[in-house]
Each structure stands twice: as structure tokens, then as C-alpha cells.
Amino acid sequence: MRYTIEWKLSGQPFLTTRGKLVDAVVKAVAHYNEIKPQLLTTGGTSDGRFIARMGAQVVELGPVNATIHKINECVKASDLQMLSRMYQRIMEQLIA
Asked: Which SUPFAM superfamilies match (predicted)?
């Protein structure tokens, strides 16, 4: 049997090392959730792989979502408000 496989890699894996961005995210999450977050790479496919390719640091932080990518996907409004406060705190730390 003869066959040919053509494959185009569209996104490289990435890892953002500890630094100002990661530290700001950890501090913001810890401040509002009163827990130290785990830094994991066990998530699924990420669009961050396209951004990281441009040399940017990438950290993904979003709401806990049991219905993500399912029928009737939803998130609590209070979780979005908390996430908004975390994002603001992260930005304040980065420009300080």
C-alpha cells in the first residue's frame, strides 16, 4: 500500500514562564478567591498558541464553566463580575 500524508502545523505549543504577567495573575486570583491557583498545562486546544507565536506572553484565565462547549453553555453573572475584577487587578499590577 502506498500513501501520502500532507500535514500543515497551524499552531505550535507554548509555555509562558514565571514572570511579571504570571505573578500578577496568581496574585489577582489569590486575592479574590483566597486560594493560590495552580499553574497547569492540562487544558484543551488553545487559541493562545497563535498569540504566543508572535512572542507575547500568554496566560489563560476564565470562569469555571461546567457547560463549556456544550448545549446551553452558560456562566454565572457573578463569576463574570469576579473575573472582571481579577482582570482589572492584573492590569493595575502590570502598569504599576
From this structure: Zn-dependent exopeptidases
15 by DSSP, 3-state: which?
A: coil
Element (H, E) at 31: helix 20-33
pLDDT band, residue 66 (cuts 50/70/90): confident
Give the angle 88-43-53 at the CA atoms, nearest 5°: 75
**Euclidean distance between CA atoms 49 and 83, whole angstroms:** 22
Q: Which of 31, 35, 39, 48 is nearest to 92 (CA)?
A: 31
- Identify the band that residue 65 occupies on the pLDDT scale cut at 50, 70 and 90: confident
State how far the Cα of 31 lies from the Cα of 18, in Å rounded to an integer. 18
Map out the domains of the chain with their CATH numbers: 20-95 (1.10.150.900)
Local structure of 77: helix, strand or coil: helix
